[in-house]
Design a protein that fits this description.
Length: 83
């Protein structure tokens, strides 16, 4: 097994419902400044991924009451962050 510190970055794909949830909870200004920027957005194999610290993802986008996840179920972790 390997460990992963939740202060490290993960890459996620935010769903349409995820974007709507973020607009409602943190607002468009936060999204524009802290999530959907060139620094945090990365295109991999033609798909857009967003780089956030793992704990940020858990805080900003919790699993909803109906077990709905607001981002894709696949995440990417850089191998250097696994120990």
């Amino acid at each position: 097994m390997k460990t992963f510190n939740i202060n490290h970055y993960i890459y996620i794909q935010i769903t349409d419902k995820g974007w709507a949830y973020l607009k409602k909870t943190v607002g468009q200004e936060y999204i524009d400044a802290c999530i959907d920027t060139e620094h945090y957005r990365k295109t991999i194999d033609g798909q857009t991924w967003y780089k956030l610290q793992a704990h940020q993802v858990f805080e900003l986008m919790p699993v909803l009451g109906n077990n709905e996840i607001l981002y894709g179920t696949n995440i990417m972790i850089e191998e250097k962050d696994l120990k």
